Amino acid sequence: MPRSVNVVAARARRKRLMKQTRGYFLSRSNVWTVAKNAREKALVYAYRDRRVKKRNFRALWIQRINAAVRMQGLSYSQFMGMIHKSGVELNRKVLADLAMNNPTAFEAIVKQVKK
């Protein structure tokens, strides 16, 4: 009996991979083995950077809060210590958003925390 190969599925698999690597540089987009490796690496980076993005945003929020609090005469660490002692339940994301988009509300929070 002749050897049976599923060319349809194999071609579909290759076609799907080549579609995913469209837009990559030079042979990374059109040479099968290079494209396969490039896609594998891209998926690794995507997985890793979904976690790194969370770290980057937290760092950005801290910088924004620090800048806004220093205008009120405090440091970031002093402010965060006071905010935890006073029992204000606002996270860094919300505080940074207030500091950027609603400085008067942020100033009111700082005054309440200073009491």
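(the above was protein one; protein two follows)
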Amino acid sequence: MKSRHKKLALIALVVVALGVAAVLVLNAFNSNLVFFFSPTQVANGEAPTDRAFRIGGLVEAGSVKREADGLTTRFVVTDTARTIPVTYSGILPDLFKEGKGVVAEGRLGPDGLFAASQVLAKHDENYMPPEAASAIEQAQKAQQTVAE
């Protein structure tokens, strides 16, 4: 092989290696990507049924029910327009309370029950996750538009 052919082969090999690396990185990124949906979006069928996603809003007052096993909790997440029932098995954050902001990550079952694998609660008196605050604001605007 001539020197020129060796250089071209090396360049081609580097380009192929970079292409394979890019495909692997993008595939890993896509499989770990988790989207956020409001209860209204979930109720309208916009949320995926085949993969995990996050749902956020307020924990509806009077909806928190603890099962006899001490770990399983059922509650309802609302954006003031629609509600989605959620079940979670595990220890809830200390700041988890009715009427406060929450983001739950998990999957939606065929029965419409959201099975959460992780629950995140607000961290101080004035904080609400930006996605949840935006979803609640949009739902309130939609209710005002319908009422008018």
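Reviewer note on protein two: The beta strands are 36-37, 53-59, 65-66, 72-78, 83-89, 101-108, 114-121.
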